[in-house]
Write a structure and sequence with these properties.
The chain is of the alpha/beta class. It folds into two domains: about 250 residues, 3-Layer(aba) Sandwich (Alkaline Phosphatase, subunit A), CATH 3.40.720; about 100 residues, Phosphopentomutase (Alpha-Beta Plaits), CATH 3.30.70. The protein has an eight-stranded mixed sheet, with helices on both faces.
Amino acid sequence: MTAFLIVLDSVGIGAAPDADHYGDQGSNTLAHLASARGGLRLPILTQLGLGCIPPLLPGGLPIAGVPPVDTPLASFGALQEMSEGKDTTTGHWEMAGLELRPGFQLFPSVAPSFPAELTDAFSARTGRAILGNRAAGGLAIIKELGPEQMKTGAWIVYTSGDSVFQIAAHEEIIPLEELYRACEIARELCTPYRIGRVIARPYLGQPGDFKRTENRRDFSYPLPEPTLLDRLTANQIDVSTVGKLDDIFAHRGIRHTHHVENNADAQSILLDLARQRRTGLIFANLIDFDMLYGHRRDSEGYGRALENTDAFLAELLPLLAPEDILIITADHGNDPTFTGTDHTREFVPLLAFRPSHPGRNVGIRRGFYDIAQTLAVYFKIAPMPRGRSFLDQ
């Protein structure tokens, strides 16, 4: 038995009921990007039932080019996040069975974002000064402060709308291993402040032509309790991750790790694992939607990435055995037509495909952790503490 859980990073499907608490009322990643580019061509996701989800939602908007179908191949619904927050860690942890209340701590957008006690301790322990200490887009702050970093060797430290302590460093000025060690120090210092992630953001190039590399690493806040991954591993069921999920789950409960930082590599690995008939849970994050297009407010690129993923799904579906399950969802929204450059608090789509079972309407689910409960039932392990299974609905 194999369960594929594929997270389309940031592919939200409409503002959540509490979106106004986050300043995100009116956001709708899928509907708005589809409208902005004159429609999407997603034949496989259409057949699975993606277009059947908006009519379930309050004020749901149709996805241009992705109409409802009469007999969807997958069970379809939407997930509402119960945890506080709209970030990667919170979303993935909830779909693995957790609920974060209170959420991770956020920081002011203007300098100084982080308190002096934290930044002074970080500088003292790493032996380097810091630049920045404010909220910024990663490419923008590297463009602005990269030349000064090359002269001084200081860290570029910044945050965003998420609970993150990000450290950018030119790989030819500060070696990668030193950057990673600095992130480990920062992780230790940031934990009492409930900061969700410390992120290494290495880059290369010269002033006017800086480019981030794929040597990014995420250092996660300690998990507060066992997740679905821990419980599956304890029951001798293999857990394989693809993408950045090893970092997000602090390398816990994972037997096989395939760490990649782009959609193409992740999709290639998923196809290889399907052809090998790898059993257990195969949990993947497809990062490009968020990292390359959502934060950069690029509807055209976002749409192309979705269409490429649809083509990938056309290859994956025939490789599934009759009793396998494929769950497709997202961890939050990131509406490329919305204001700012941060994530958006949205419902996320839910598609659950089992080749030997007809698709059903599973409705709006309160809690991403319904996925964890469903997979606990699928793998016949003890129930998770939260959530309702939709496996036999």
